[in-house]
What we know:
Elements: H1 14-31, H2 36-42, E1 44-55, E2 65-71, E3 78-87, E4 93-105, E5 110-111, H3 116-119, H4 128-137
Antiparallel strand pairs: 1-4, 2-3, 3-4, 4-5
Amino acid sequence: MPPDAIDVNGHVNNLAYLRWMQDIATAHSSACGWPLLRYLETRTSWVVRSHHIEYERPAFAGESLTALTWIRAFGARSSPRRYAFWRASDRALLAKAETMWVFVDGRLGKPARIPEDFRSAFELVPDEKAVLQALDAGALA
């Protein structure tokens, strides 16, 4: 974990979690066939409407953390994306989060309908409980 992720209390600060949320959302999108280049070609993007982070336990310098993200649902123009962060050594859940992303037409600079080819590229995981139970059982370790 980089030193700039640690706050004055000696644990990972909230800005690090936000940065990681954006990084893993981007990586997930790319892995599903929507890298940055495809957004540029289609002149579309996603913008954040809101973030919510629920911190369960602190993480400290020197600890190895794992992050997971999934898309919970698709609305007409927006999509909630969930995240879970846990400590590798004991699989303790550190934080749960959600970002509400809005799909944007870059030509108009306004929210746009999420296209079918985007929707079909991603598997929806509507049941967070199943994800967190798998984490507790060590299936994600």
